């Protein structure tokens, strides 16, 4: 345990790596190129709204054990909130029909085949198609596996899959949806209760982790960007930052927890996912706080999910490459019309708002791009990788990101024995 692990990147993957290493007594230095930690998972003050908002909207499920364990470790177990019972409410914007999917306790077929939990217009046979995921091959898309010729696909599986994979269901890999369903919906109500950040992403996932790391001796350097690595005899020997060069000892290790293209620039020749998909989030300020509505699935429109926190309503559009090319004001008008319908605001004028475009939100989770995911270990003995784009076996979600950090930390410890 004498060595130090140098973690490049203060996003959720880097923080997860650092937290797991600090907990077992490993010395840690964390370097972040920006002036704050969190990466895409953060909150900030938005002057146009006079409120703090999240950079993006993220839904965590009660079966996401890595995420919940991480919150326990950093002292933020109450950072998420959700409905008392496992329920998913939806609105079909085309028909104005509303319904709630309530999952009974038990395995997926018994839960979702119950009459009370069935999506309107769907049949018993539609639900049985979920078993196709068990045999889905590496080249099978979500649409090929679960639809798209049935009502359940349009009203449940498609919005869920697009939100999880941030890739159109007709090109998204079913193989990545499979483990999510197995670990959450496949285990019944106890594992698929929807949870969102109680106050904000930074307040839940980032700030407590930074406090925990600092209190336990981690060295955190902001505005510190890695320019190059020096390799000799199969190891990383030096880290060249904008602030200077650090020479590593024989027992030191390095974890790169940065985006795939940044990693590829630092490690020429490394194969990484080369395509990405955008996410667009719209945030709108209401005249008053909405009724008790944490989130709502939207069918038949542009946005897929609507979230409410206080007097701020936010909507998320995943797989949004085309939408992201439009002017922000055009996007705002489109999304506000859907929000107004969802919240019964009739012809309310467009309020104060903020449109956030993330053109490289996640890697494109297609069969071809999944094959380009890198392993935790590299060809250099003391260099390891973390990030939602690495080969975790899970999609690029909060759960997958945190698990990548755990995998990286475990591999560091094994390699240092």
Q: How would you sum up this structure, described in words?
A:
The protein is 30% helix and 25% strand. β3 and β4 (51-54) form a beta hairpin. α1 packs parallel to α8, α1 packs across α13 (398-415) and α2 (65-73) crosses α13. The strands form 5 sheets. The protein has a 7-stranded mixed sheet, with helices on both faces. The chain contains 13 helices and 20 strands. The longest helix has 18 residues, at 398-415. With 417 residues, the chain is of the alpha/beta class. The chain folds into 3 domains: 4-41 and 201-274 and 366-415, FAD/NAD(P)-binding domain (3-Layer(bba) Sandwich), CATH 3.50.50.60; 44-81 and 276-363, Polyamine Oxidase, Chain A, domain 2 (Alpha-Beta Complex), CATH 3.90.660.10; 105-189, no CATH class. It has helices at residues 12-23, 65-73, 108-112, 124-128, 142-146, 151-165, 174-183, 201-215, 260-266, 321-324, 328-342, 367-370, 398-415; strands at 4-8, 27-31, 43-46, 51-54, 60-61, 80-81, 87-92, 97-102, 194-197, 219-221, 226-232, 235-241, 244-247, 253-256, 276-285, 295-299, 305-309, 312-317, 353-363, 383-385.
Number of strands: 20
CATH domain topology of the largest domain: FAD/NAD(P)-binding domain
CATH superfamily of the largest domain: FAD/NAD(P)-binding domain
Shape: globular
Strand % is 15-25%
Q: Which strands sit side by side, in order, in the main sheet?
A: 8-7-16-17-18-15-19
Number of helices: 13
Mean pLDDT: 92
Uncertain residue ranges: none
Helix content: 25-40%
Overall number of domains: 3
Structural class: alpha/beta
Q: Report the radius of gyration as a whole number of Å.
A: 22 Å
Tell me the name of the CATH class of the largest domain. Answer: Alpha Beta
**Largest beta-sheet characterization:** 7 strands, mixed
Q: In the CATH hierarchy, what is the architecture of the largest domain at level 2?
A: 3-Layer(bba) Sandwich
Distance between the termini: 8 Å
């Amino acid at each position: 345990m004498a060595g130090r692990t140098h973690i490049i990147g203060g996003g959720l993957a880097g923080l997860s790596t650092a937290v797991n290493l600090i907990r077992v007594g490993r010395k840690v230095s964390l370097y972040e190129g920006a002036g704050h930690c969190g990466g895409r998972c953060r909150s900030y003050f938005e002057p146009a709204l006079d409120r703090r908002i999240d950079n993006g909207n993220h839904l965590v499920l009660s079966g996401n054990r890595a995420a919940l364990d991480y919150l326990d470790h950093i002292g933020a177990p109450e950072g998420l909130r959700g409905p008392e019972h496992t329920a998913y409410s939806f609105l079909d914007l085309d028909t104005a029909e509303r319904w709630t999917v309530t999952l009974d306790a038990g395995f997926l077929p018994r839960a979702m085949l119950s009459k009370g939990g069935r999506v309107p217009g769907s049949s018993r046979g539609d639900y049985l198609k979920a078993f196709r995921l068990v045999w889905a091959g590496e080249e099978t898309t979500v649409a090929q596996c679960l639809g798209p010729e049935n009502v359940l696909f349009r009203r449940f599986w498609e919005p869920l899959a697009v939100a999880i994979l941030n890739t159109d269901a007709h090109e998204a890999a079913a193989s990545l949806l499979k483990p999510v369903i197995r670990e959450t919906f496949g285990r019944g109500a106890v594992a698929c209760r929807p949870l969102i950040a109680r106050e904000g992403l930074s307040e839940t996932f980032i700030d407590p982790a930074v406090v925990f790391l600092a209190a336990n001796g981690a060295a955190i350097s902001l505005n510190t960007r890695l320019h190059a690595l020096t390799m000799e005899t199969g190891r990383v020997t030096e880290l060249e930052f904008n602030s200077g060069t650090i020479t590593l000892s024989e027992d030191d290790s390095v974890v790169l927890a940065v985006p795939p293209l940044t990693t590829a620039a630092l490690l020429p020749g490394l194969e990484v996912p080369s395509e990405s998909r955008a996410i667009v989030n719209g945030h709108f300020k209401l005249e008053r706080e909405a009724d008790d509505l944490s989130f709502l699935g939207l069918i038949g429109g542009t946005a897929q999910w609507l979230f409410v926190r206080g007097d701020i309503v936010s909507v998320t559009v995943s797989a949004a490459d085309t939408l992201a090319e439009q002017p922000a004001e055009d996007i705002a008008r489109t999304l506000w019309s859907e929000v107004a319908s969802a919240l019964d605001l009739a012809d309310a004028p467009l309020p104060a708002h903020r449109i956030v475009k993330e053109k490289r939100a996640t890697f494109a989770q297609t069969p071809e791009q999944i094959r380009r995911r890198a392993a935790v270990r590299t060809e250099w003995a003391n260099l390891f990788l973390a990030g939602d784009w690495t080969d975790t076996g899970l999609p690029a979600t909060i759960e997958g990101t945190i698990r990548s950090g755990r995998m990286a930390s475990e591999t560091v410890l094994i390699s240092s024995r």
